[in-house]
Design goal:
Layout (H helix, E strand, L loop, with lengths): L3 H30 L40 H12 L12 H13 L10 H7 L31 H13 L10 E2 L2 E2 L1 H11 L8 H7 L2 E3 L7 E5 L6 E9 L2 E5 L6 E5 L3 H4 L2 E6 L2
Antiparallel strand pairs: 1-2, 3-8, 4-5, 4-8, 5-6, 6-7
């Protein structure tokens, strides 16, 4: 027969060991819950220690957060690179200063947005389009033979025809941009110039470079109805032109986003690429 006292002692020891094991496990589980990745180390500070949250970085140019003057960091640097690709002056130093703000305002003005210098959803959408949409696009002239090689444009445009040229040009404002296009169904930039002057009775070479080299007469400063020329837009060399409207404005076939539009030549993009003007009188 088993001694009752012995049984009681055995039961008491077993129960004590089991309780100690459970209590130890609870302590171990509590320690591991505060020691995972991203948590603060345990300190003697009596304040409640909060778990660090990962820093959310802004992506550029598209972001759910606005970028504005005074911001800095990688998101701003990416924005500046995008602005440069769009033909704007924006040193990619990661600091949203006066220069970057001005570049943003230029883009906003070019696309009919509110000109506030803040990169919000609408401006982000414009900046997210392909880079070639910001500059005059690749045209059919790159692969086509120049149509006609007149040494000079026909000398048939008189002063009254200058007004006609502007009127014809303005009549197709809003028509779409189409690479290789020469009609109101779609123009490329040199095709637009050809169309307007053809309607005015003047035959021009097909490409910007050929018009600059062969047609008309160089002038020191443009008059209304003259053609203003630019280089190093979508390619090196003479590559874009527009019809001067006065007050530093021109009408031109811009991009697939803008089509034929009136814009100012005061933007840094155009000023830095302007090479001169010609009259086709």
């Amino acid at each position: 027969m088993i001694d009752n006292k012995y049984s009681v002692r055995k039961y008491f020891v077993s129960t004590t060991l089991a309780t100690a094991f459970v209590f130890s496990s609870m302590l171990a589980g509590g320690a591991s819950a505060n020691g995972g990745p991203g948590s603060e180390p345990i300190t003697n500070d009596t304040s409640v220690t909060e778990q660090k949250q990962p820093v959310q970085s802004k992506s550029a140019p598209v972001s759910n957060s606005n970028l504005t003057k005074g911001d800095s960091g990688q998101a701003v640097k990416e924005l500046q690179k995008t602005l440069q690709a769009k033909g704007q002056t924006a040193n990619p130093d990661g600091t949203f200063g006066i220069e970057t703000e001005g570049a943003v305002k230029n883009v906003q003005s070019n696309h009919g947005l509110s000109v506030d210098g803040i990169v919000g959803p609408a401006t982000n959408k414009v900046l997210s389009t392909t880079t070639t949409d910001s500059n005059p696009e690749v045209e059919i002239e790159d692969v086509a033979t120049s149509q006609g090689s007149n040494d000079q444009a026909e000398e048939t445009v008189n002063q009254s025809n200058q007004t006609d040229i502007v009127s014809i040009a303005n009549s197709v404002v809003g028509k779409p941009y189409t690479p290789g296009g020469t009609t109101p169904a779609g123009f490329d930039s040199s095709g637009f110039i050809n169309y307007v002057f053809d309607k005015a009775g003047v035959s021009l070479d097909r490409t910007h470079a050929s018009m600059w080299a062969n047609n008309g007469t160089h002038v020191d400063s443009p008059n209304v109805g003259d053609v203003v020329f630019f280089e190093n837009t979508y390619k090196n060399g003479v590559s874009h032109s527009g019809i001067y409207l006065g007050d530093n404005q021109m009408v031109h076939a811009g991009t697939s986003n803008t089509g034929v539009e009136v814009t100012t030549m005061s933007y840094d993009y155009w000023q830095s690429r302007y090479i001169g003007a010609k009259t086709f009188n």
